[in-house]
Design brief:
Layout: H1 14-24, E1 29-30, H2 32-38, H3 43-52, H4 64-81, H5 89-92, E2 96-97, H6 98-115, H7 130-147, H8 159-174, H9 177-213, H10 216-224
Antiparallel strand pairs: 1-2
Length: 225
């Protein structure tokens, strides 16, 4: 059964909420289901923010990015359809180390405290209507898709889409159109970055093809040019 999503305005700052969640984590492990029930009125957008925190460094996180990116995509679909998203039991009940999640929350709280000085309702045209929010949901879906791409050894392949999702989610949560705009730009930057990687791989493949198929004299002549 699905219900209409109502993203309520927050009563606490994002940093205070993350700090509170970190301090209330039980020992051992937690699950996405637990985090979903804990975030309360901040709802799915706060979960999106939490899921991006591990990717805010240049080091790719293969495996984790696939799971978290898939959850972001499902949340984005829920926003687009204005319905609570369905999440598979395997995702909801997957155990996550409380110690590691606590460290992530603490780091996210510190980052949020710095960001919050610049977050406020503005450029409301980018968050004021259902149609615009569905467009924002499409951008979140794009960001989640790029997050799960299998590029484990490419620097920044998680970080750029991670920040794009982060700014979009913060902007939608706090009605800050400037943050949403940053999210748009980072999604575009991610597309350009991945396109450059794809072009580089294609050109490298063509060069190798020439190297292994062209006769030796031809290779020597090409090298001398």
């Amino acid at each position: 059964m699905t219900t209409t999503v109502e993203f309520q305005d927050t009563r606490e700052s994002l940093s205070a909420t993350l700090q509170g969640v970190a301090e209330a984590l039980p020992e051992g492990t937690v699950s996405v289901r637990y985090l979903l029930s804990t975030v309360g009125e901040h709802s799915m957008l706060l979960l999106c923010i939490i899921l991006t925190i591990p990717f805010l460094t240049p080091i790719p996180l293969p495996g984790v990015s696939t799971i978290f990116g898939a959850i972001v995509m499902l949340i984005a679909v829920g926003i687009i359809l204005n319905r609570l998203p369905w999440l598979p039991r395997q995702v909801l009940d997957r155990p996550i180390s409380s110690e590691q999640m606590g460290k992530v929350m603490q780091r996210g709280s510190q980052l949020s405290a710095r960001i919050e000085r610049f977050v406020k309702p503005r450029l409301m045209v980018l968050s004021a209507t259902t149609t615009v929010n569905r467009i924002n949901g499409l951008l979140l879906l794009l960001g989640g898709t790029m997050l799960i791409l299998p590029l484990p050894f490419i620097p920044l392949s998680n970080m750029i889409p991670g920040y794009g999702i982060l700014f979009l989610a913060i902007g939608m949560l706090q009605r800050d159109g400037l943050m949403i705009l940053f999210g748009y730009l980072l999604n575009i930057a991610t597309l350009l970055y991945f396109a450059a990687i794809a072009i580089g791989v294609i050109l490298a493949g063509q060069s190798l093809s020439v190297l292994f198929t062209e006769p030796a004299p031809g290779i020597i002549l090409n090298l001398l040019r």
